[in-house]
Amino acid sequence: SLALFFQARRRQRLAAKDQFEPRPIELRSDEVLKGVTGLIGNTPLIRINSLSNALGVEILGKAEFLNPGGSVKDRVALRMIDDAETVGLLHPYTGSRIFEGTVGSTGISIATIARARGYDVTIIMPDDVADEKEKALHALGADIERVRPASINHAGRNFDSKPYQNVARQRALEFGRDFSSDRLHLVQAPSSMVVSTSGDEENSDDLMNKPRGFFADQFENRSNHDAHYDGTGPEIWRQTNGSVNAFVSGAGTGGTVAGVGRFLKSMNEQIIVAISDPEGSGLYNKIKYGVMFDSKESEGTKRRHQVDTVVEGIGINRLTDNISLALPIVDDAFRITDVEAVAMSRYLVQHDGLFLGSSSACNLLACIKLARKMEWKEGQTIVTILCDSGNRHYSKFWNDEYLEKAGIPIDPELVTQLLSSS
Ligand code: PMP
C-alpha cells in the first residue's frame, strides 16, 4: 500500500507540473485602472432571467450597484466634480470643500471621489435618513449637518428637498466668505453651479489657490444629465448592439432619465422612454395629465405626514432642471405601489439571486407593466437601471419588522401573478 501511496503522489506531482505549462495570453497594457474613479461606469448589463423567461421579452438591468460608491450616483458625482474642475470652479488640494444636500447615495459618491481628489465634503441631510447612509458618510470622512426631518414634508423621500438643498447652497456661500477679505466673489457657472470664492480677478493665481465652497446641486446641475448622456446612454446602446426598444427609469433628480432617454432618442426616435414612479410622487400625474400633484394629496393630510413609504431615491414633486430636460422625451409612466416594490425585491432574490434596493425594484415592476401593455413578443428588449444594492436599505425596505409596522405585506407571489395575468 506504501507503493500505491507513492504512485498516487507521483501522479499528483505530474498533474501539478502540467499546470505550470505557460499558456498564451493576450497582453493588455490598458487594464490597470487609475484609482478609485477608474472603477466608475462601464457597468455590465445583465439579463433578468426570471422576468425575461416569463414575459418572452428581454428585460436587461444596468448593474449600477457595482460602482465603487455602490450606486449610479458615482457617475454623477464624478462628472459634477470633473466639470467644476474643468471650468476652474474647483482646484484639487487647495482646501476647497464640496457641499450637497441629499438624502440619497449622492453624498456617498461625492465623498468617495472627494477623498481621491483632496476635497473636504459637507453633506446636509434631514435627521430621519436611514442610518446606514450616515455611517457610510462618516466612514468616508464627510461632515454631516442634520436639518429638520423630511417626514414633516414627505416621508423621508427626496420630495421637497429644497430645504436642505438651500442649506447646502447657503453653507457653500458662507465657506467662500470665510476666505474673503471683504468681498464675496460669486461665480455663476454654466449649468447653474454655485461656487463661492473671494478676490477681485477671477483668473489671478492668488484666486486659483484660494479654498472654495462648491455647491454640487445635483437637481439643477446639467453635469448630472451629461454623465448619463455621455456615459450610461452610449454604454446601453453599445451593450445591446443598438437593439434596445425601451428604457425604463425612476426619477429622483431626473438626471438618469433625461440623459439616457435623450441619448437613446437621438440614436433612434422609436425607443420608448418610461418612468417608474413610486406612491406619493407627482411625476406620474405630470406625465399623464400635465399637472404635478402628489398622488396621496387627495387622501388628506393624515396619510401625507406619516412616514409610510419605503422607496428611497426616486419620486419627486417639483420640476427640477434635470426633470424638465426629460419631460419632452418621456412617453409613458407607471405608478408603483410600496407593496409591489417590496414584493418585487423579494421575488428577485428568490428567483435570480439579486439583492437590490427599492428603486431597482420599482424599475423592474415598471418593465413588466410596459411589456404587458405593449404586448411585446420575443426579441424586444427593455433596459432599466439597477441603481443600488439592498445593503443600502437594511433599516427600512429590507427590514421585515419595519414593513410590518408600516402595514406593508411581503408577498413575492404578487409578482408571479403580475407575470401570469393576461
Ligand atoms: N435610485 C437611487 C437609489 C437613487 O439614489 C437615485 C438618485 N436620487 C435614483 C434612483 C434616481 O436617479 P436620478 O436622480 O438620476 O433621477
TrEMBL record:
InterPro entries: Cys_Synth/Cystath_Beta-Synth, P-phosphate_BS, TrpB-like_PALP, TrpB-like_PALP_sf. Its main location: mitochondrion. One of its GO terms (biological process) is cysteine biosynthetic process from serine. It catalyses: O-acetyl-L-serine + hydrogen sulfide = L-cysteine + acetate. Residues 36-388 form the Tryptophan synthase beta chain-like PALP domain. One of its GO terms (cellular component) is mitochondrial outer membrane. Pfam families: PALP. Its cofactor is pyridoxal 5'-phosphate. One of its GO terms (molecular function) is cysteine synthase activity. It is found in: Mitochondrion outer membrane. The keyword tRNA-binding does not apply. The keyword Mitochondrion applies. Its EC number is 2.5.1.47. This is cysteine synthase.
